[in-house]
């Protein structure tokens, strides 16, 4: 098994943050510092430059990172092959998912997978679609789940399930409009949107292009990096509109805090997709998880 200190080092190098590494590995920040100092003493090299709150890799750190990633890959391949002798899935599975998937879609299916494959150690990273693609290309995760329009030619995309974005606002006394709101009237509202790099924003941007409308033409009140923040903002901001996944609204709609606003001539369907490196076989745990997710989602529709 690879030295745990290398895993600590990889986490700090990935986040460029001792605090985020501690959160990811569920150990204290002093423990993170201790492991890094032990590695630096062992190799006789400084691995990170620390200037205030800013952390950067030294040349020695970049060299160690490339070798640590290689060691991790070899260890995972060995684990897969050994357990494959008995058709058993085991080892560490690093999943990455864009925000909507990580918050609302994947968590409910994880316990079932863990019950079926108790020897697989699951890790779920959250980021926008662009960040998940980058994590795959750098070897930081084994299997990703994203949504959006832009594709990377170095990655393979596999359709998983359908989704739909809807316009939403703070609940009003009159309730949702009886007829779809004209598109230009909807876009005249102050809008709360996801950040650049998110699949949600990509879908909206592509749909608006069909109406010869650019994001720069819109009156954007705020860009936020997650759906929960958008929903909370909308609840406190009557008169604003946001665009979020219909799957993310069950609680707020039932509680009467938010309402969906149908918009004329604006359809925002999208597809959640599994993604991994083009031309690379998935590790055994990743293959098992993909198959399990496909089976679970096969009969799930948007409600």
Automatic annotation (TrEMBL):
Q: Mind listing the UniProt keywords for this protein, alphabetically?
A: DNA-binding, Transcription, Transcription regulation
List the molecular function annotations (GO) for this entry.
DNA-binding transcription factor activity; transcription cis-regulatory region binding
Q: Name one Pfam family in it.
A: LysR_substrate
* Keyword Transcription regulation set for record: yes
For whether the record's keyword set contains DNA-binding, the answer is yes
Instruction: Write out the transmembrane intervals.
Output: none
Which InterPro entries does this UniProt record tie to the protein?
LysR_HTH_N, LysR_subst-bd, WH-like_DNA-bd_sf, WH_DNA-bd_sf
Please state every residue range assigned to the domain named HTH lysR-type. 1-58
Q: Which family does it belong to?
A: Belongs to the LysR transcriptional regulatory family.
This one is known as DNA-binding transcriptional LysR family regulator
| UniProt source species | Hymenobacter chitinivorans DSM 11115
**Taxonomic path:** Bacteria, Pseudomonadati, Bacteroidota, Cytophagia, Cytophagales
């Amino acid at each position: 098994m690879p030295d745990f200190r290398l895993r600590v080092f990889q986490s700090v190098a990935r986040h460029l943050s001792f605090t985020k590494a501690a959160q990811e590995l569920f150990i204290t920040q002093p423990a993170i510092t201790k492991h890094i100092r032990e590695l630096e003493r062992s190799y006789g090299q400084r691995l990170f430059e620390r200037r205030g709150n800013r952390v950067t890799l030294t040349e020695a750190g970049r060299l160690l990172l490339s070798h640590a990633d290689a060691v991790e890959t070899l260890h995972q391949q060995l684990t897969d092959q050994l357990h494959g002798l008995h058709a058993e899935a085991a080892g560490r599975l690093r999943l990455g998912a864009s925000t909507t998937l990580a918050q609302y879609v994947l968590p409910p299916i994880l316990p079932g997978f863990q019950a079926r494959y108790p020897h697989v150690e699951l890790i779920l990273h959250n980021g926008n679609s662009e960040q998940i693609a980058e994590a795959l290309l750098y070897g930081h995760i084994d299997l990703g789940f994203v949504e959006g329009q832009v594709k990377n030619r170095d990655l393979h995309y596999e359709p998983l399930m359908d989704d739909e974005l809807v316009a939403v606002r703070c609940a009003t006394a009159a309730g949702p409009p009886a007829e779809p709101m004209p598109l230009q009237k909807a876009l005249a509202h102050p809008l709360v949107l996801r950040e650049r790099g998110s699949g949600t924003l990509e879908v909206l941007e592509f749909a608006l292009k069909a109406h010869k409308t650019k994001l720069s033409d819109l009156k954007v009140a705020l860009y936020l990096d997650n759906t929960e923040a958008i929903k909370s903002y909308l609840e406190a901001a009557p008169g604003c509109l946001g665009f979020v996944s219909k799957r993310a609204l069950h609680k707020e709609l039932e509680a009467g805090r938010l309402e969906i606003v149908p918009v004329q001539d604006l359809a925002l369907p999208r597809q959640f997709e599994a993604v991994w490196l083009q031309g690379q076989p998935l590790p055994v745990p990743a293959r098992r998880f993909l198959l399990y997710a496909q089976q679970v989602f096969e009969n799930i529709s948007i409600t």
